[in-house]
Amino acid sequence: MMPRSSLRASADARWLIPLFALFFAKQILILAIIGPFTGHDEVDHFFYIARLADGDGLGVVGQVELPDAAVPYQDYVADFPYNAEVIQPPLYHGLLAPLYQLVPGGTLARLYALRLVSVLLGVVAVWLVYLIARQAFPGDSFMRIGMPAFVALQPQFSFEAAIVNHDILVIVLFSLVGYLVQRGIREGFSRRASLVIGLVIATGLWTKVSFGLVLPMVGVGLLFAALDERRRDARWLGPIVSRVSLTMVLPVVLVLPWFVRSYRLYGDPTGAQRLREIPEYGEQARSYAEMLTSAVFWQGRLEDFWGNYGWRQVPFDPAMYQLIWMAWGAALLGLMALVVRSVLGRRAGWPPMLNHYQARTVTLWAVAVVSVMFGVLYVGTIQFTQSRFAFPAMPGFALLSLLGWAVWAPSRLRPFGLAVMVSLLIVMNLLVAIRFLVPYYYGPGGGALLLP
Amino acid sequence: MRRWIIGLIAVVGALLALALAMPVEVRHSAPFGFRQTLDRTRGIAVDGIAIESNYPNFNRVDLDLRAYTEEEQYDLTVTIRPVQEGAEPIRTVHINRPFDAIRVEKGALANPFTTVRFEPIADSEGKAYYVWVELGPRNDDAVVALWSVKSYSRVRGAEVLAALAEGLPGGANLPARLALGGAMLVFVVAAGVLIVILGREAWINGWSSRRAAARAGDLEPL
User: What pTM does this model have?
Assistant: First the structure.
């Protein structure tokens, strides 16, 4: 007899197969459409990989210059002629170095081969979102189908999954940690499960230092488990100490060599101070208060989240942003209504909208979203900031958006809502490609004005 | 089964029509989507700028107009002429806007652009045009600046995709074109299958509230 999850997966195959075929085909198209090296920080990441492949070592920010091959793309480099990305841990770049060496041909052939890896990582990320949705909402097709569809059709996630940049690996690892913590809340955090979570977090920290923003989500997951155990067992403290050690202390210990290196070279463990000193970075820095109270700042972040491909060169039109904001506004109001309804319902004895586990899952991902948004603001205190720094919590954005919309639709209308949402997202992807993205780079009369 | 296939053909056909046959307004290639006249460092803006059209049928400009003086109505004349020595204007459009539509301060999330459409310029691909704005006689004392201009052409999606196939990096060789065509076909067919499956699910599960209530799962309505 097949286990329940396998049965669910086989039943889901009828929509999963077309969804993944659509996503993969779309990614191949975006990979081809986006001009060479015009993804954000793509020049730096590519030549960081090249540097490791050529055995030139890690390098120091402010000393590592980009090679001559990067000169035509200097308008797409934050700190030309220097490679600012060598401040980041080298796992992503080191993993791709062998592929860089194996690919025959010149720079362009290698660039597109490395972009293809991002496409495959994007497929893994969408699959993880499906697992997250299936775990929390096994009986609700609106959430189970809607969450992976939302992520697969989100334009800037697609962009991340079609360029050479370590951010797509960060999204995959963050989603994996979220999935494992969700599972831990339901099934318990065994020593082995805790160790696996710790190792994935260490992998994330060796990919990008900001991966530490996953820790609040892990902490909340452990707290939920501890509350359950405290009710069941008097000896609850020991297991908690063990879990915290494995999931939160171990990864920090494992990444310590990188922190020590950064501290010795730049004077702080993350290297942020060194980035602040780069004139064009530091000049755009703002205080938390300035950012939090600026409507223009939040407008920019909303635009970044959906549009503004590569270095903000290719935005949507205002009307399209306004439609998206209306949809997200409805989701936000829905979430607020859900909270109010939950508080009132508890007092009045109404049946809850979400079961205990779902409520905890929503809390978990809400914490993840708040944590990565703090990351967006933190980067803003160092340099210009962008919404893509929040993308690691993409499953959380999908979950909260879908939940907010679900609140407004009676259950019998949700299947229609799902079909409409997916159709609209597909049409939006088509229109964005035809109206903005392709014409920016290609046209019978030219295109891509900043390209060499 | 037959209905399923008819539905699939209808959805794929609609998507193909949208992607290939339906005319859409494509934005010309420009950094950040527009040509900026505003120089924030010097605090100046002028009333015109040259745009480059990379598609035929140039038919629309979006103007970021900013009025610094308050008047009830603004009469504006938008003129377009090729960027050539001695070239005559080829399109002139008169528009009228209230102060609130073009006041200098724009609220957050507002659309700052005023859209102006005109008879398409058929052979516009690869050509530059000067676009400028003049105030009418009753606004002689008004101060209005043009901060930026976006420009568009009305073309079919097929023309956009043909431009992509021609301009692919590494040359528009046959394998590259076949791969691109294959990916487009898979995208459209997969999208069609997905929409039909979800539509069918919605029809079966969503039509009868009693059945839907039984299948709604964990998430109950508010």
Answer: 0.92
